[in-house]
Amino acid sequence: MTGFRFCITDRKRFRSAAMGVLAAASAVMLSGCYTTKDTTASIPNDYRQRHPITIKETDHTVQVFVGSNRGGLNASQRADVLAFAQAWRKEATGGIIIDMPTGTPNQIAAEEAVREARAILAAAGVPPNAIAVRPYAPKNRIAVATLRINYPKITAEAGPCGLWPADLGATYEPQHLENKPYWNLGCATQRNLAAMVDNPADLVQPRGETPAYTPRRTTVIDKYRQGQGTGTTYPNANQGMISEVGR
User: Fold this and answer.
1) Burial (CB count <10 Å: 0-12, 13-18, 19+), residue 122
2) CATH T-level topology, domain 54-157
3) 199-229, pLDDT tens digit by residue?
4) Domain assignments of the chain as residue spans, ordered by start
5) pTM across the whole model
């Protein structure tokens, strides 16, 4: 009887050890299948990570062509400088620098253009101490040297696009068999979005709310209290209609 008891005890111990080893192996296999990374080797699957939009400071420049036999700016160039000054008040992060060509056939005319450009900028609200003139010598003295007016601003950029590190056709590379998005996918969308956004800060955080229009809000609340419709009605909304189909 004693030997029989030892045999049963050994079986129970062996069975418990085997179950423990099996549970540990299952845990290791499950942990190997779980992953939180959305990457294929070093290439992210998300196009926003593969082609991120970066916020940086770049120069906004307008070039004014000045002929050697003309002093000052013409009407179109004055409009360009005025629009440049208005944009500076909205988006600039620094002062305005005017690059004036020197040692060129149009140097005298460029000096006259600089004086007129500074007058237009000052009239548009740019402080005089925020305008600086910087002479430069162009490499090609024969070509028409331009008057370059620039200021720094915050811009959004993405790319460059058109990079093909792997062939899209049938190859022996492992990427061809993984059914993953190709590298250039989504680059054009990111680049176009960065170019079209009005304020690059909108890509990072929402804008602050502006105060409500108090007169209109008061009118709507009064109509609501009286049980009237709060929609806006226009007295001449149907004026000029050719047909009444759909009314």
Assistant:
1) middle
2) 60s Ribosomal Protein L30; Chain: A; (3.30.1330)
3) 898 888 888 888 888 888 898 999 999 998 8
4) 43-52+159-196, 54-157
5) 0.60
